[in-house]
Specification:
The chain is α/β, with parallel strands linked by helices and 269 residues long. The protein has two domains: 181 residues, P-loop containing nucleotide triphosphate hydrolases (Rossmann fold), CATH 3.40.50.300; 69 residues. Helix content is 36%, strand content 23%. A six-stranded mixed beta sheet has the order 6-7-8-3-9-10, with helices on both faces. Strands 2-1-4-5 form a four-stranded antiparallel beta sheet, with helices on one face. Strand 1 and strand 2 form a beta hairpin. Helix 4 packs across helix 5, helix 4 packs parallel to helix 6 and helix 5 crosses helix 6.
Length: 269
């Protein structure tokens, strides 16, 4: 059994929300990711850690339907309980998933926001994708979510470019969560932020994830972020998952030599 396949902490009667088997995409020798398998259950947070170039971002792109694999499958159990083979669906269906039942928080919030429309419009856009058309409902949802992510609701008509980086990231989170998604992908959500802003954002994220019972896949190079948010970890190196298990177990007692180096912050080139 591979390290990734050991990520099965739930009983046999529980149904995974997201199942990945032998997921592989390579751009060159050990460039990309290969042989990744795991199950993710509702309400769980899976962290993917490793040094730059280990394959984390490639894996996240595959999981979120942004690029096709060379081989392997990604299965999602949709709201009616039926498994959906992600790469057997059309690109339009994958885009619809990302706008409705899924969300994607980009490392750079400018990549995840529409900078030319107001904060309220950014939040309301996802609701409109679900069929909400009443202006009052859209505006009320915008005000509510600005409050939830600690942005002054009076700024609902301001453009995102007038916000600080930390506020833009919080707005991007509101934009993703307003549609009540079941699964969120996060790519280094605290990257590039000041330490004090990072701490505040992490507290906000942790609270929202627990309150909304979200399933989350988060890529990060920051082990402090992983410890705070993730229930389980996968450690990647040179396109492979080298260790997988409970977060505290891996960070407190890593077994693989690379995990030990990662935890001790003595990374070798």
């Amino acid at each position: 059994m591979s390290a990734a396949e050991k990520l099965q902490p739930h009983s046999a009667t529980a149904q995974p929300l997201f199942s990945v088997r032998d997921l592989t995409r390579l751009y060159g020798p050990e460039k990309g990711c290969q042989g990744v398998s795991f199950d993710l259950y509702p309400g769980e947070v899976l962290g993917i850690v490793g040094e730059s170039g280990s394959g984390k971002s490639t894996l996240l792109s595959l999981l979120s339907g942004r690029c096709p694999p060379d081989r392997g499958t990604v299965s999602y159990r949709n709201t009616d309980g039926h498994p959906l083979d992600l790469y057997s669906t059309s690109e339009a269906q994958r885009r619809t998933l990302l706008r409705t039942e899924w969300g994607f928080v980009e490392q750079n919030p400018r990549d995840g926001l529409r900078m030319g429309v107001s904060a309220g419009a950014n939040i309301g856009e996802r609701l409109m994708a679900q069929g909400v058309r009443h202006y009052g409902e859209l505006r009320a949802a915008g005000i509510d979510w600005l409050r939830q992510v600690e942005i002054d609701p009076l700024r609902i008509d301001d453009l995102p470019r007038t916000f600080s980086g930390g506020m833009q990231q919080r707005l991007q989170i509101a934009r993703n969560l307003v549609s009540s998604p079941r699964l969120i992908f996060m790519d280094e959500p605290t990257g590039g932020l000041d330490v004090s802003v990072q701490a505040r954002l992490l507290d906000l994220l942790r609270g929202l994830v627990r309150e909304l019972d979200l399933a989350v896949v988060i890529v990060t190079h920051d082990l402090a972020v992983a410890r705070l948010l993730a229930d389980r970890l996968m450690v990647m190196r040179r396109s492979h998952v080298v260790e997988a298990g409970l977060t505290d177990q891996i960070l407190d007692d890593p077994q693989h030599p690379y995990s030990q180096l990662l935890v001790s912050s003595v990374l070798q080139p």
